[in-house]
Amino acid sequence: MADNPTKGLADVVAASTALSDIDGRAGRLFYRGYDIHELAGRTSFEETAHLLQVGTLPTRAQLAAYGAELVQGRTLGGLVAANVAEIAEKQAPMEALRTLVSLASADDPDKGSNSAEANHRKAARLTAQQPILVARYHAARTGGEPREPDPELSIAANFLLQITGRVPERRAVEIFDTCLVLHADHTMNASTFAARVCAATLSDMHSAIVAAIGTLKGPLHGGANEQVMRTLESIEPSGVAQAVRDRLVRGEKIMGFGHRVYKTEDPRATHLREMSRELGEASGDDTYYRMSKEMEEVVFAEKGLYPNVDFYAATVYHYLGIPTDLFTPVFSVSRMSGWTAHVIEQHADNRLIRPDSEYIGQSAQKWTPIDER
Ligand SMILES: CC(=O)SCCNC(=O)CCNC(=O)[C@H](O)C(C)(C)COP(=O)(O)OP(=O)(O)OC[C@H]1O[C@@H](n2cnc3c(N)ncnc32)[C@H](O)[C@@H]1OP(=O)(O)O
Ligand SMILES: O=C([O-])CC(=O)C(=O)O
Question: What residues form the catalytic site here (predicted)?
């Protein structure tokens, strides 16, 4: 039987959105009409989150008010504190985040309401809390409490401070902030779609975000950034080309390559490649950057595939001192801004999302009693 032409919902328009847009042939990405190349390196993650959740790039006064909301919103209830140590012992990072966000919902002052006002407050709170949850998880498994976030610092600076335990250099913060901007939203990617499907039943924002976290975790989506680093670590620097070819011969996918929508370079990879080069050189050992470059050339020569957002993000995070198993959680820290904006948008103009399926099973079956089967 021929494959369903819309298998994986390829090219199916599943929602209308004013949040982001992709031109996959030209390799362009826009957040609310702003080209990602205009935003990256010039707009902070907080401004980007405001753009997505509220609808506009903020004025200074609006940014100050939103920043104050984020600082206030990052306080977590007692359930997280009471359970994080056991969760950190038993669950891998993305599983733990799925659980912790669910726990945090119990203490959310707006729980039970899907009003536009409640959704906006929840969106800011979830965006503020996600990096704190990652830091708490990481501290719990390493036997301590994370450093207190500094209200004067950005989300990017506080995250690096809490994860590495050191006050980060200015340039490291700028680069990490740009990473957060680059990952913030991406039309109907799998995790955003999962969030919208959940929200469209008129379920609540936290439930939709739990669905999104579980979906981002998979290695065909956000989980690929961790796998990219594991691949680099498993290969000898002189054996990149052979290792890629061996994997392809075995029919394995090369993590961090290929994309459903981009038919050319992912515009985010352009920035991430450059930041990886800069950090690699500054670190005094750019081996992983150079291996990545070679891998890019070999994969293109063999398969004609381009790197996606996850490919160079891996080495950027590595050079920033972020543990490899926190790469996908970092993705969630950024994407929280987009997911929550999509839930706001879905609830504002809702219709149940319920696609059809093509039946491929047997027909005209005759029922027989259990002892005769
Ligand atoms: C943030 C993100 O989610 S970005 C994506 C992160 N995921 C990855 O990096 C995982 C590796 N990449 C992939 O698995 C895919 O390219 C996806 C999931 C991103 C896109 O999937 P789809 O659009 O469904 O493409 P699909 O998997 O059908 O691939 C089409 C063809 O290209 C090949 N292909 C696609 N990606 C790769 C890859 N990374 N390595 C090797 N071959 C690949 C497939 O084997 C397939 O070949 P075939 O037609 O001969 O069977
Ligand atoms: O759009 C997609 O399918 C995956 C992706 O690049 C993202 O979510 O950033």
Answer: 259, 310
Taking residues 215-227, report their average pLDDT: 98
Helix intervals (H) in the chain: 36-39, 45-54, 60-73, 78-90, 93-105, 116-141, 155-164, 170-182, 190-199, 205-216, 224-234, 240-249, 267-283, 287-303, 309-319, 327-348
| Whether CATH 1.10.230.10 fits 224-319 | yes
pTM of the model: 0.97
Model pLDDT for residues 141-196, shown as the tens digit of each residue? 998 788 889 999 999 999 999 999 999 999 999 999 999 999 999 999 999 999 99
Q: Of the listed 310, 318, 342, 347, which one is catalytic?
A: 310
Q: What is the CATH number of domain 30-169+181-218+326-348?
A: 1.10.580.10
Using the mean position of ligand 2's atoms as its centre, give its distance from the Cα of residue 212 in Å.
Answer: 12
Ligand 2 within 6 A of CB of 247: no
- Of the residues 186, 206, 259, 342, only one is catalytic, namely 259
Q: How confident is the model at residue 2 (pLDDT cuts 50, 70, 90)?
A: low
| Dist. CA 93–CA 95, nearest whole Å | 5
Domain boundaries, the chain: 30-169+181-218+326-348, 224-319
